[in-house]
UniProtKB/TrEMBL annotation:
Belongs to the glycosyl hydrolase 12 (cellulase H) family. Residues 255-385 form the Ricin B lectin domain. GO terms for molecular function: cellulase activity. This is Ricin B lectin domain-containing protein. It holds the Pfam family Glyco_hydro_12.
Length: 385
């Protein structure tokens, strides 16, 4: 839809000395209630926007790192008309408000392998869609509205709202079946509605959806992808909608980094004692967002950008209790492959085991190990961002 404005122990032994990871204040949530209020996050890589463009009713979002939650939404729009808002997080430029280091704009015929990740939570109330919004224009830096095309990827929805235009077919893309809709409201709107809704889209191909729209004659390959946005269009209500993780990379893998936060502890994976060398212990510590708690997805590996080293199972161990530490990255290394599964676990395929906070620990200094995957154990559930 159109967007009318911008929218283990706390001390651990190491090499005969005592090293402690200094405590840091947890990231404080920021509330945004201004109609078009926004906040730069993750080192300016993304921008979160309230973007209440289609209603006068109150909407507020709470932003913490590269994630946000709708905390208030008093909307009651007709479901036969436009939505009330598009609270969202994006990479690129939107009405002249540009994030840093996104690699956008990018001409369609120069695409490498742009990919995005979108993990959400949704309430059993209200009428809304959960969607990614891809914008294209003949101008690489449009000052306002993009007039080329808008690709909307409806991962989930609730209630009566339908996409703009009419349904024109069905297509299988990125492991899902999608109803395809098309309409024109001054620009082409191509909507892909997942026939089986999902709250998790991990490392999916932006190019796959773009290529389908190109094949349908709705996107010119000389146009530019100007932004990749992830959020929700609420018509009625909307409180409780949340983006828990968003990432975009121009050529797969990418450079964006996030913390990895444990569900049971609400603490982050931390390089003990601010270490950056091979064999540095990885522990839980209060989340503070600084470099020793940042991890960048590179394929199925997690790289700490400052050290350039990877989250690794020591000695490629496969037994319960094998230590997880920092080690030089090995392309395709079996000890460094981690699948972030839909249940929130980080699964190492070589061992068949999950990343685990040892002994159900939740305190600062708790060691990280691998252990047989449980059934929803909170010490094995991790959130990126």
């Amino acid at each position: 839809m159109p967007k009318l404005r911008p929218m283990l122990l706390a001390i651990l032994l190491a090499s005969g000395g005592l090293l402690a990871s200094p405590p840091g204040a947890a990231l404080a949530a920021t509330e945004i209630c201004d109609q078009f209020g926004s906040l730069r996050v993750d080192g300016d890589r993304y921008i979160v926007q309230n973007n209440r463009w289609g209603a006068s009713t109150t909407q507020c979002i709470s932003v913490e790192g590269a994630s946000f939650r709708v905390t208030r939404a008093d909307h009651n729009n007709s479901t036969s008309g436009p939505p009330a808002a598009y609270p969202s997080i994006y990479a690129g430029c939107h009405y002249g408000n540009c994030s840093s280091g996104s690699g956008l704009p990018l001409r369609v015929n120069q695409f490498g392998d742009p990919r995005a990740t979108y993990h959400i939570s949704t309430p059993n109330a209200g009428e809304w869609n959960a969607s990614l919004d891809l914008w294209y224009d003949a101008n690489p830096f449009p000052a306002g509205q993009n007039f080329g095309a808008e690709v909307m990827i409806w991962a989930s929805h609730r209630g009566r709202p339908q996409p703009i235009g009419t349904r024109v077919g069905t297509v299988n893309l990125e492991g899902g079946s999608w109803d395809v809709w098309f309409g024109n409201i001054g620009w082409n709107v191509i909507s892909y509605v997942r026939t089986t809704p999902s709250n998790t889209m991990t490392n999916f191909s932006v190019k796959a959806f773009t290529n389908d729209a190109v094949a349908r004659g709705k996107i010119d390959t000389n146009w530019y992808l100007t932004s990749v946005q992830a959020g929700f269009e609420p018509w009625i209500g909307g409180a409780g909608l949340a983006v828990n993780q968003f990432a975009f990379t121009v050529n797969g893998g990418g450079t964006g980094s996030t913390p990895i936060r444990g569900q049971g502890s609400n603490r982050c994976l931390d390089l003990a004692g601010w270490g950056s060398g091979d064999g540095t212990n990885i522990i839980l510590w209060d989340c503070h967002g600084r470099w020793n708690q940042q991890w960048r997805r590179d394929g199925n590996a997690f790289v700490n950008p400052q050290s350039g080293k990877c989250l690794d199972v020591r000695g490629a161990g496969t037994a319960d209790g094998s230590e997880v530490w920092l080690w030089s990255c090995i392309p395709g290394g079996i000890a460094q492959q981690w699948l972030h599964r839909a249940d929130g676990t980080l699964f190492n395929p070589h061992s068949g085991k999950c990343l685990d906070a040892a002994g159900w620990g939740t305190g600062n200094g708790t060691e990280l190990i691998i252990w047989t995957c449980g059934n929803g154990q909170s010490n094995q559930i991790w959130r990126l961002g």
